[in-house]
Write a structure and sequence with these properties.
This protein is α/β, with parallel strands linked by helices. It contains 9 helices and 6 strands, in the order E-H-H-E-E-H-E-H-H-E-H-H-E-H-H. The longest helix is centred in the C-terminal third of the chain and has 16 residues. GO terms for molecular function: GTP binding.
């Protein structure tokens, strides 16, 4: 195990989907690629977040896939995102904002994204990497060229401190791309002054009450 890797393994929360970007994010498939097993159901969406764990390249990796509530509103989404934080205590090391590299993010989707995520505090963005899927779509174009050509993507990458990665989720046989990605997360974690994302006490109390109200 790498000396730079978090003790006890890496905790990841996947965020993304059609209702934030207007396009499918391939989020479940991405979770399966990272863990190297078909542990997330890609055939349907459920209303609650799901946690899965695997040993990946000698590391213990926990992935939480955040799901949209059946009744989709920013408030309910915020509750479910906060619940996803509780599924990997004491908190995730990284959030992966999963977006197809070909997607456009017009202003309406940027506003929607910020509305859904605003209760996670500014600290959220310090722990977030934009994970572009469908890297095969780029062809000979670089991801930097793609980001520069689409204002919404440039805005999002800047929001995340210029942290991004491209995954070719159409090629399940390329294990090295996952290893390289884990190493990039490792590097981000090692350089972060806060080792993991945690909800503050007030938000924890609020989230706990909301979770009970919504799930009973």
């Amino acid at each position: 195990e790498s000396s730079k890797f978090p003790k006890g393994g890496l905790r990841i929360v996947l965020i993304g989907g059609r209702k934030l970007t207007g396009k499918p994010s391939h989020k479940s498939a991405t979770g399966n690629i990272i863990l190297g097993q078909n542990v997330f159901d890609t055939s349907k969406r459920t209303a609650k977040s799901v946690v899965r764990q695997q040993e990946v390249h000698g590391r213990h990796v926990t992935v939480v896939e955040w799901h949209y509530p059946v009744e989709n509103t920013p408030k309910l989404d915020q509750i479910e995102i906060k619940n996803s934080v509780y599924l990997c205590p004491p908190g995730p090391h990284v959030f992966l904002l999963v977006i197809p590299v070909y997607v456009r993010l017009p202003q309406i989707f940027r506003a929607s994204l910020e509305e859904h995520l605003k209760l996670l505090t500014a600290m959220f963005w310090k722990h977030t990497i934009v994970l572009f899927t469908r890297g095969d779509w780029l062809g000979v174009k670089t991801v930097e060229e793609r980001i520069a050509s689409e204002g919404g993507l440039e805005w999002l990458v800047n929001k995340c401190g210029n942290r991004y990665h491209v995954l070719n989720n159409m090629d399940r046989s390329d294990e090295m791309q996952v290893k390289e990605f884990l190493e990039k997360i490792e590097e981000m974690w090692a350089g972060n002054e806060d080792p993991q994302y945690e909800l503050d006490n007030a938000t924890k109390t609020e989230a706990g009450k909301e979770a009970v109200e919504q799930r009973v």
